[in-house]
Specification:
Elements lengths: L2 E7 L3 H15 L2 E7 L1 H9 L6 E5 H9 L9 E13 L10 H10 L3 E4 L6 H13 L2 H4 L3 E4 L2 H9 L5 E5 H4 L5 E6 L7 E7 L7 H11 L5 H6 L3 E2 L4
Amino acid sequence: MAIVKVMSAGAVESMVKALGAEFERDSGHKLNLVFNTAGNLRERFQNGEEPDLLILPQTAMAEYEKQGRLVPGSRTDLGRTVTGVAVREGAPVPDISTPESFKQVLLKANGVAYSDPRAGGSSGTFFAVLLQKMGIAEQVNKNVFLGKRGYEVAQAVADGRVEIGTTFISEMLTVRGVTIVGPLPGPMANTNTYTAAIPAGSEHRDGAAALLRALTDPASATRWTKAGLEPAFLK
């Protein structure tokens, strides 16, 4: 039996936890699960912290592979998710069908939540730049809640602290009390693919490889979809 350490971005947390629990039951291995923003985990990995399985955005993992920091052949795409918009359950559903209508929703909202770019969240970093491009960053950020993690964004909406929240749909689906309005409109759309690999410094490569097989079992594809993640491991 091994204790397999997993460092994973939050966008795939729900599926890593669910399938990980089944993996523990079936394999006898134990998991040490560490979830945080992609930025936080990249910093920790670059500073020498070595998990047995690392799950980060595809672009970061491709770079680590080029650097020789991953076990050759282990890099595997898991799931894709998109940045979406949520309101409190029971609240009127705003029109976000076009960039202009979404802009007006943000300007009129009684508070907006997104993940804090300083915490390293991929969706929050993207959205902060989007506000600048729309020319409304100053107005929106006057009444903003910045969550360290995506689920905190959705929780702020569910609690009524803000009217609108935006982060990855896969993270918002884990919080009760919110209604997913939909993805960002048209050219504003933001999709991230999350990729797993075994770092070269892994102490439990066999256990990590077994977990990776469990995460990418085609039989779990429907569950990934229900969790707001398009299964990227299907060929």
